């Protein structure tokens, strides 16, 4: 029986938005995440990101279209359950359904309008990544040359997310903005798909003090499978993920570490982890290096515990 998986980040909704001919419900070689692959690999919960490419990023109607696709193409088969509350998460596990969370990656399309943010919360979005790689109206991303932090409207966004109960996600956020969010947020925050900068110096990875801050506040970091974030030289073997895990654990992160694949948001893959159907290969590797209890926490329980604590109470 496969070990249950909780993946905190994939971009399959973006692919479905850009190419309506792609088929999530059946096997499709052009998608890293499909229903058959999820069933094969034992995924218990999957976070589906709403991400728009930069040339479309300001279009709120496409965010709404992505949510429509989530219902029509992802949830319609009945084997996935939309996770909006603590009860939903519990019932999905009890009924052996795959839990499906919605997140927003980059707030560009909100255009500074908190009514749009509240609308997404009411539609079931449960976490918000502030930026993609570059700047938007709220803050700078990690690739923005000026390396600045939040705007006044962006700081208001943090407060409103806290008020609503939207989980804040610092993956892609510039370092100055990270520390501003850390100081302002009254609630734990996450890095859904980031690795350790000390192991692989890359702007998208987290420095040790950032990792320690996330751990200290009770957040979770999702180890990501983007090859350039894992190792400098390609091809990248699965074993190259282990130093990131070891390093974050050495900083106290054993119960603050999960998975955030970035499947369908990448154009190159770790050898052996080319799609979601291969997750159990990674589990087998982990079982050779860590205790069964630590493996189960890393691949499922740490994220599940966090969301159990921070999703809204039952509707």
From TrEMBL:
SUPFAM superfamilies: Metallo-dependent hydrolases
Gene3D superfamilies, A to Z: Metal-dependent hydrolases
CDD domains (alphabetical): rDP_like (cd01301)
Pfam families: Peptidase_M19 (PF01244)
GO terms assigned for molecular function: metallodipeptidase activity
Signal sequence residues: none
Any GO BP annotation: proteolysis
Lineage top rank: taxon: Bacteria
Name of this chain's protein: Membrane dipeptidase
Species whose genome carries this gene: Paenibacillus thalictri
